[in-house]
């Protein structure tokens, strides 16, 4: 059997390039003509970014509490002033805890701090008086916050009293410094994390819907009946959505930096390297879902359940992974967003830490290869 001539090989290569370019051009036109694609790629990310930037906040400031002073003395007045001076509390004063009970039940206040009637006598006798903090346990995070900062306010008041009594400053002072996010603003790490959620939606949901639509209409089988190979078809369909995902990410980054004021201390190279590799498992998962379901409704539901919810709940975006059950912690290792979210937060707040980025890139690349192999095999079986 004779081998093909160089001219035939070059002609075959040109034919493959023309087929691939035609597929990319056809898919690009389809994206531009489809309003739902534009909605998911550009409008939905901006809405989500505004929700995470303005609507979701983990900052707890000026929490409304009631301070009950069961006795009125200069000492208790000084203690009440320390609560009012705290930037974490908005204080409503009273002399009977019963006047705040209904307010606490209706969640109009978040806690009741009770200074007992024997506070001054106990303190002046050299004993440790007890201050009662009553909180609403239905919101554990806020309840813990009120308790901890109430204790902190009392401890700060005691240090000041000791300094005044000794005629000088306390012997030991604590200086707090917070690296990377000195203001402890939750927006600075929520907005970069939300970009990963947006890319998950754009990559997985959009790809699964569009490709599933072609399976429903029969156009996918028609294209597979042409000389186009399965690899050329998948690559030609994915390239426009890959560019679309990076474009959506770029818009989100611009909003994050110039609108929300999130610092960007890393490099553009690190940002696009992480984002480009993350789109591999996102697009591959969308292809696999569409090939397995061939139905837009099922594809959208599976994309939300298998991509969006794990990225939102199991990636460390809102909930600490170390506090999850051990089984769930093991499951998080196959969630690509687990590796992108801390990397994006590092790019924005800390800068380029390439050992961390290269590890995340290698894991996301491996997960993406698995999805692409499964999608290619599933596509061939569907055609066969």
Describe, in plain words, how this protein is organized in 3D:
The longest helix has 31 residues, at 187-217. Helix 1 (6-33) crosses helix 9, helix 3 packs across helix 6 (140-166) and helix 10 (268-293) crosses helix 11. It is elongated and about 105 Å long. Helix 3 links the parallel strand 1 (63-69) and strand 2. The protein has a 4-stranded mixed beta sheet with strand order 2-1-3-4, with helices on both faces. It is 68% helix and 6% strand. The protein is mostly helical and 384 residues long.
Strand content is 5-15%
**What distance separates the N and C termini?**
29 Å
Structural class: mainly alpha
Biggest sheet: strand arrangement:
2-1-3-4
Write down the overall mean pLDDT. Answer: 83
- Helix and strand element order: HHEHEHEHEHHHHHHHHH
Structure summary, number of beta strands:
4
Radius of gyration: 29 Å
Oligomeric state of the chains in view: single chain
Contiguous uncertain segments of 5+ residues: none
Q: What is the 3D shape?
A: elongated
Alpha plus pi helix count: 14
Helix proportion of residues, in percent?
55-70%
Brief description of this entry?
With 384 residues, the protein is mainly alpha-helical.
Topology diagram in text:
Layout: H1 6-33, H2 35-55, E1 63-69, H3 74-85, E2 89-94, H4 98-105, E3 111-115, H5 119-124, E4 132-135, H6 140-166, H7 187-217, H8 219-224, H9 230-258, H10 268-293, H11 296-313, H12 326-331, H13 337-349, H14 354-383
């Amino acid at each position: 059997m004779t081998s093909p001539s160089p001219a035939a090989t070059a002609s075959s290569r040109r034919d493959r390039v023309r087929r691939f370019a035609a597929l990319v051009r056809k898919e690009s036109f389809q994206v531009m003509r489809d309003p739902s694609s534009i909605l998911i790629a550009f409008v939905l990310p901006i809405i989500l970014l505004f929700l995470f930037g303005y609507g979701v906040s983990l900052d707890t400031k000026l929490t409304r509490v009631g301070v009950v002073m069961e006795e009125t003395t200069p000492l208790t007045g000084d203690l009440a002033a320390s609560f009012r001076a705290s930037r974490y509390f908005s204080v409503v004063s009273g002399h009977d805890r019963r006047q705040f009970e209904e307010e606490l039940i209706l969640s109009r206040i978040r806690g009741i701090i009770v200074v007992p009637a024997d506070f001054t006598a106990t303190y002046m006798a050299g004993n440790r008086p007890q201050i009662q903090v009553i909180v609403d346990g239905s919101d554990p995070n806020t309840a813990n916050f009120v308790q901890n900062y109430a204790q902190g306010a009392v401890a700060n008041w005691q240090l000041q009293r000791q300094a005044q009594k000794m005629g000088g400053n306390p012997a030991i002072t604590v200086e707090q410094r917070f690296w990377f996010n000195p203001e402890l603003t939750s927006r600075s790490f929520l907005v970069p994390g939300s970009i990963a959620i947006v890319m998950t939606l754009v990559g997985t949901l959009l790809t699964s819907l569009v490709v599933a639509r072609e399976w429903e209409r029969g156009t996918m089988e028609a294209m597979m009946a042409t000389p186009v190979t399965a690899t050329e078809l998948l690559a030609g369909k994915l390239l426009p959505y890959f560019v679309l995902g990076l474009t959506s990410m770029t818009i989100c980054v611009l909003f994050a930096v110039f609108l929300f004021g999130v610092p960007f201390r890393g490099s553009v190279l690190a940002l696009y390297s992480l984002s480009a590799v993350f789109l591999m498992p996102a697009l591959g998962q969308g292809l696999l879902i569409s090939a397995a379901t061939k139905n837009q409704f099922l594809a959208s539901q599976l994309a939300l359940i298998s991509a969006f919810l794990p990225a939102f709940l199991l990636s460390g975006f809102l909930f600490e992974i170390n506090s999850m059950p051990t089984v769930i912690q093991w499951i998080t290792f196959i969630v690509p967003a687990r590796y992108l979210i801390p990397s994006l937060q590092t790019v924005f707040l800390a800068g380029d830490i390439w050992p961390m980025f290269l590890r995340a890139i290698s894991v996301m690349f491996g997960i993406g290869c698995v999805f692409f192999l499964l999608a290619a095999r599933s596509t061939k079986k569907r055609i066969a």
